[in-house]
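task queued by scheduler; priority normal; single chain, no ligands, no partner chains; default sampling; output format set to structure tokens
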Amino acid sequence: MLKDKFVSHAGDYGAEALERMFLSFPITKTYFFYFSLAHGFSKLKNHGKKFGDTVAYLGNLHGTLPALSDLYAYKLHLDPINFKLLSHCLLVTLASHHASDFIPAVHAFLDKFLASVSTMLTFKYC
């Protein structure tokens, strides 16, 4: 099952998705100017791992994400569009690693789930 494959490699996929986002959408790097885009850069990898691990172990969106929403909205002032872009990059990363498992139903489920994560992370911006 794709979920088991994702959980076992969540950190790697998170780092790859973050790297993909910075390279595809350079404006998103504004908040991470100190990150090198060199493949395997430790800070990029560590931050991507945090993202991947967070997404992999979300069971209760409404209980888990409000604290992160506060952090991103009030302390870090991240642009809320970045969450949607990162979600898209994570979908691309998963599809590239698990093409045979990435059937339309799985794509639709992950897209809806990541849209919910993005919505919860931007909740405090309103």
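post-processing summary
- The first helix runs from residue 2 to 8.
- The CA atoms of residues 37 and 52 lie 18 Å apart.
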